[in-house]
Amino acid sequence: MKRRTFLKISAVSPFIFQSFFCSRDSAWTQFTPATEKQFDLLEVKGSYKQIGYEIGHYFQNQINVIIERRKDWHQNLLSILNSDTGKSHSKELYQLTQRYFPHLLDEIRGIADGAGIDFNAFWAMTIKSELGALEPEHPGCSTIIYNDENQKWLFHNEDGHTAYHDIMFTVKVHPPSGVSFVSLVYPGILTGNGPSLNSAGIVQTTNYIGSITSEIGLPRYVIGRAILEAKSLKEAEKIAMMHPRAYPYHHNLASFTEKKFLSVETVPGIAESKSPRGIFIHTNHLLYKTTMQYEYEDQKYKTTSSLSRYGVLAEQTKLLKDRSDLQPEDFLNILASHERAPYSPCRHPEGNVEGQTLGTAFFDLNKGEFRLYKGNPCEAVPNNFYSELNTEKTTT
Fold first, then answer.
1. Which H or E element spans position 84?
2. What's the CA gap between 180 and 202, in Å, rounded?
3. Residues in CB range of 352: below 8 A, 6 or more apart
4. pLDDT tens-digit readout, 253-301
5. pTM exceeding 0.85
6. Closest C-alpha among 38, 11, 254, 219 to residue 123
7. By C-alpha distance, which of 188, 218, 208 is closest to 249?
8. Residue 274: which H helix or E strand, with range?
9. Which of 114, 193, 209, 362 could lock 248 by a disulfide, CB 3.0 to 4.6 Å apart?
10. How far is CA 272 from CA 234, 262, 294, 301, in A?
11. 187 and 167 in contact (C-beta within 8 Å)?
12. Is the dihedral of CA 323, 326, 330, 331 positive or negative?
């Protein structure tokens, strides 16, 4: 991975830094406010509890905003969590997290403390898929991989509820493991669900897979967060495929150093990993022979949002297969398509459909570059509303 300045903003005006050495238990932080082309950025170093605390403290407003904007949803999560069945299920998920990743519970506690909210208020959002299986929510993401002898590109639309559209942020974290990472983060959700890159050159983006039930196992967000500190692609794959797991998930993994991609589909009890070649697409339904045996996939979501976007990607990428002069913009423009709206690759809220594309990631494995576009790609791509991120320090 090439050594670069951590954040190179394609903007005319210089960006503003607010930095200081934090006295909170010797944690170090540096904050860069958002601009037209970049999300808020917090750089933090410390223990896992300190890291969580600083994230919660700096983004307290955004976390409380999302709880207020989605008040009914959050209250429903807490109601499920506080029911007899919810308490039992939550306890088992908590105990498994404590067994395998106790340091991440420290981080979760830190976020709740820093945001000034009750632990259960944040834990409920951490296990929202597992709690909400009785009433599934329908986010979505669209992914394209282009992998041939010359180019190795990964493109990803990060879609979520429109309530997040103006409060997403980025973090650059230096944890005790020594593996730093940068990531796009949803307020109120553990880091790792959004597009990410670590200092070992490991890339992760994820695709939601809907289920009508939840099992006893590790929460999907905990597994996604654990991958951010993987030292190799093999280790990232091993974490992605570990069991027991509570809920399905799809991981797009890659390595800047190994120049390799992995597509890992996981459901409770089953996981399958493939190495994509040529043009590969994935949205939010299961594609592989073994994982498709999972009988609880949410078919309603699959046949509406996910298959609609998959169809657009399949049709438009097919037109590129015989071209030898492909550029990243060819694929980015596909992710900016509004064909079959509101279930199009570039998503906007429409009527009762509340999904929206919150950002678009582009990873170039050969160049060691991570480009993060801010907002909907239909506007961000033609206007170059993006920043380039890596894990090098911004200060000495």
1. helix 84-100
2. 11
3. none
4. 999 999 999 999 999 999 999 999 999 999 999 999 999 999 999 998 8
5. yes
6. 219
7. 208
8. strand 270-274
9. 209
10. 14, 10, 12, 22
11. yes
12. positive
Residue carrying structure tokens 């088992």:
92
CB 17 within 8 A of CB 29: no
For residues 292-304, one letter each, b for 16 or more C-beta atoms within 10 angstroms of the residue's C-beta and e for the rest, the string is eebebbbeebbeb
Q: Could you state, in order of their start, the residue ranges of all structural domains in the chain?
A: 35-130, 140-389
pLDDT tens digits for range 127-143: 999 998 655 556 689 99
Residue with tokens 């961000």: 380
The whole-angstrom separation of Cα 196 and Cα 170 is: 10
Count CB atoms within 10 A of the CB of residue 82: 12
CATH class of 140-389: alpha beta
Contact predicate 190/101, CB 8 Å: no
Beginning with the edge strand found earlier in the chain, give each strand of the sheet holding 278-282 in spatial order: 7-9, 386-389, 369-374, 355-364, 152-161, 140-147, 278-282
Residues contacting residue 255 through CB under 8 Å, at least 6 positions apart = 200, 201, 202, 203, 232, 233, 365
